[in-house]
Design goal:
The complex is a heterodimer. Chain A is of the alpha/beta class. Chain A has helices spanning about 10-25, 50-55, 75-90, 135-145, 150-160, 190-195, 270-285, and strands at about 35, 65-70, 90, 100-105, 120, 175, 180, 200-205, 210-215, 220, 250-255, 260-265. Chain A starts with 11 loop residues before the first helix and ends with a helix. The longest helix of chain B has 22 residues, at about 350-370. Chain B is globular. In chain B, about 25% of the residues are buried. Classes of the chains: A alpha/beta, B alpha+beta. The interface of A and B includes residues 76 and 161 of A.
Chain lengths: ~290, ~375
Amino acid sequence: MKANTHFAFFDEGSKKEIRRATLKAVAIPGYQVPFASREMPIARGWGTGGLQLTLSLIGQTDVLKVIDQGSDESVNAVSIKKLVQDTTGVQLTECTEQADIIQSRHRIPECSLTKEQILVLQVPIPEPLRAIEAREYVTKCMHAEDDYSGAWLMLFEQIMKYGKTATTADHPVSVHDRYVMAPSPIPRFDNPKMNHSEALILLGAGREKKIYAVPPYTSVKSLAFDDYPFTVESFEGAHCHLCGAVDVFLDELIDHEKSETIYQCNDSAYCIEQLNKQEKVEVESTYA
Amino acid sequence: MGYVPVKGGTEAIEASIKRVKFERLKGEAILEIETILSTMRALVDQVMSESSLYSPQLAALAIKQAEGSMEEAVFLMRAHRSTLPRLYYSQSVETEAMFVERRISASFKDIPGGQLLGATYDYTHRLLDFDLINEKKADNTHWLHSYAKELQEVKVEETIERYPKVVEYLRKEGLFEQYEMDNTEPEDITKRSLEFPASRSARLQVLTRGQTGALTSLAYASLRGYGEVHPTVGEVRVGSLPIYVKHPNEEDGSADEEFYIGDIQVTEVESFVPVNVKNEHNEDELEFEIGYGICYGQNETKTIAMSILDQCLEHLNDEFPTHDEEFVLLHIDSVESSGFISHLKLPHYVTFQSKLDSIRQVKKGVQVNEG
């Protein structure tokens, strides 16, 4: 009754099938390619789309980094890493620069990625028009007809209601001036990082059975009006209480003793790197 | 002998009942109630929650008798519930006083009091554990001993800490509305039939005893686009709550005179949902509201689903079935839905004959007219 697990969990036929869908996704930037999403040993909706992409791509020599909400040590990231390592034995890293494949939930790392790297994003709701139209058949037709009036109308209605666009994470983007795409729920702060990214960005939605992609050096524009331009989350006046970084995405924490709000780098690997750099400078200057 | 509905059915029924008993006994193994209680915690919790009767022992018995069928076990428990006298209502419970076994927030990394993972399948990999085929009692005893040893080394807090609600932090910032405590006695939907529009207390009761699968499906539909509620979980907590009842004869008795009647384990969820509200200048503003869920035992998916549906029903909307009070509340009950679906197995010879006749007549009529 007992069976040994195959390299990277899947049988080779499944990997091939997922890679084919991935190739198609790369060939048609921003287009959601349906694929036969497998039931995985982690819950549907917990990153099975990203995991399937990672497992279909990974080879023995790859170095993997997994982040969840900016952290390598977040419970779900730990669980996913453990599963991939158990079934492949690949090397794991927390250092963004060392990784070949970076699987992420809800964040793009702070330091810019290179053409040697692949960013795999986990996507809960790949359909940018879902809030406007619940039926899959209809949204598929809308994409085919380049009908994105619903998405524009949503932004317009927000301006009418609140005086500004009020999208949260997952602000829709137009890829290669053709398909409007959900950038996975990354904060608006990360949207610009997709534009002309050197790294290949793959997006996988396991539950919704879709794979899509932003190939390297592809234009990615966040939807916005000329007079109501796209804006990212504001951390004006705030800085990381550990490394002092500004211009990064920050987490809001509560200092229980002083009951004050403090901020900390959301990308924990980036923060540690900054701290190490500062320490190095400090040590060098002391001994010199 | 075949089954004839009018005459001669008695023998067939008896044979059928014997047959179902045979199916349960033929393997010649006996499942002890104790075994169910100690190894089927999730099933016991779900049965208690759907039957709205808190008794792990009776739930285990129902599971044994029903051969593990959820709908049958809940059916047995609900039928038993009808035979029990209902003597008292408990005093209202403050869930902040819960003895917390598990508590997480998906909204903040760093919540006052901290995150407490407790027992959860969430981070296990769903790979079949073939070792369980040959599980040995001695190995388990050994594991338990070493686990107990590990626990001894853990430092125990000297004081009992109360975990504050995550929402209090945001409430202080004015992101949630402050409400007056509403201590009006809740309606009891088991003693009075549901009327629409339903009160919130009635609604929450229907939801908490609703079928786990039905709640999950409808809440999922709301998340996916057939509804308008997509929350962030502010807090999930699992733990036990002490239950007190008032002295029956002393009207204004103090809390000291209340009777402690035992603990119940519950799962409680507060979901944060951004909504549109009008401010004093009649302008639209965004604010958070809470979707609330609570049920017996550790049933986290169900409780989160309940919190979504609670919020859906706070904002009635004809466009979506998940925001339609009657649609949701009248269809999620296990006993009602499975009962009516299964009634289709009863003989419908008369009504079908009538339908046949009608269809034949109509067809004949069409042919005559065409000819």
